[in-house]
């Protein structure tokens, strides 16, 4: 299996969930995405995200895409 290409995109799902007192399981039920797929996103292992998925997550967390995803060119793996 090829090694994963490093990237500078950071996902802040943990912080947003904590700020809203919501669990990954609760978010999963609200947006219709499996806990496994949300976990992949939360841990920064996702290679892509559909706009429809991003929209549902933002709606459930009452946030903007920029609250969830940021670009950090100097971060780990960049």
TrEMBL record:
GO-annotated molecular function:
DNA binding
Q: Give the domain of life.
A: Bacteria
In terms of InterPro entries, this protein maps to: Cro/C1-type_HTH (IPR001387), Lambda_DNA-bd_dom_sf (IPR010982)
Q: Which SMART domains match?
A: HTH_XRE (SM00530)
Domain HTH cro/C1-type: from-to ranges? 13-68
Name recorded for this polypeptide: Helix-turn-helix transcriptional regulator
């Amino acid at each position: 299996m090829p090694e994963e290409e490093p990237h500078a995109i950071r996902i802040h799902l943990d912080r947003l969930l904590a700020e809203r007192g919501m669990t990954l399981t609760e978010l999963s039920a609200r947006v219709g995405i499996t806990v496994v797929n949300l976990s992949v996103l939360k841990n920064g292992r996702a290679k892509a995200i559909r706009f429809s998925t991003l929209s549902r997550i933002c709606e459930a967390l009452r946030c903007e895409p920029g609250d969830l995803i940021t670009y950090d060119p100097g971060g780990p793996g960049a």
